[in-house]
Amino acid sequence: MITILTGGTGGAKFVQGMVKVVDPREVTVIVNTGDDLRWWGLHVSPDVDSVMYALGGQLSQERGWGVEGDTFECLARMKQFGADAWFQLGDRDLATHLRRTELLRNGATLSEATADIAASFGIQSRILPMSDERVETRIVSDSRELSFQEYFVRERWQPPVQGVYFCSADNATPAPGVIDAIEGASAVFVAPSNPITSIGPILAVPGIREALQRTVASVVAISPIIGERAVSGPAAELMKSAGLAVSCEGVAQAFQDFLDVLVIDDADLQRSAEVEALGVQARVAPTMMNSDSEKLALARAAMAAAQPRQPKGAL
């Protein structure tokens, strides 16, 4: 059994590769929900949906989010009505949010709603939200605060970032199965996702970071930074705001208390010693995932890096 912590498009790609390497039924994916939002009265879980669409063979290859070949007729009509339309939902994507909202309204938890929708897509892996309770990623910029989607989509991650925090995380609990999936895994992987706003919210839920420290499974992360630049998105700016170096070394610092191995890109071979000085093993492999073959190769490299270990920083 393997467990993957993920969020964002890079994480969804990594999960796609991993289910080609191991039996999909042996994979549990723990997904960031700090990006969730209420839109047009619907509960939208962007990172959960990206994983479901990826595993269900429906993820848009061009956009990296949403449904392949989707149309946007509803969005166009909402614009005509004068409604907010900066967060783009496709018509088939909209059906997912309608179903989720219906299930939640009828008393289902987010975990139960996710399982219901994933089953309808024929997904064999287990997809777990990090928590069934609301945890919201908030971006502090100048004298205002933004939700993550306001910062990332509406403002196109242009505002300067002074800080990030996870509203209500202290009072949240891990979703059922999350801790068992970490502690019972033969290997745990942290996908090449934004360390601050994709993996950070997961780690902010009490009990999850401690489980990563306790588990006897090897914990392997894949760096989303190559050189001094993020592969995609605002990871560099957000890491700077957290006082982390924008490098694979900074990624190792973010996860240092539980991480055994960091897979870094070939281009960062010379940084291996910096990573290992932090007590984290460095493994080098091509980390870009621009094709199915590259996704598969990275998943194989990550699996090869996973070795059983003694608990690191156990409490």
Feature tags:
alpha/beta; 13 helices; 14 strands
Q: What does it look like?
A:
This protein is α/β, with parallel strands linked by helices. It has a domain at 36-129: Orthogonal Bundle (Helicase, Ruva Protein, domain 3), CATH 1.10.8. The chain has helices at 8-21, 46-55, 73-81, 91-105, 110-120, 148-154, 178-183, 200-204, 208-214, 235-241, 248-254, 272-276, 292-305; strands at 2-6, 27-31, 37-39, 42-44, 126-129, 136-141, 144-147, 163-167, 187-190, 218-222, 225-226, 229-230, 261-264, 281-284. Strands 5-2-1-9-10-13-14 form a seven-stranded parallel beta sheet, with helices on both faces. Strand 1 (2-6), helix 1 (8-21) and strand 2 (27-31) form a beta-alpha-beta unit. The two termini are 24 Å apart.
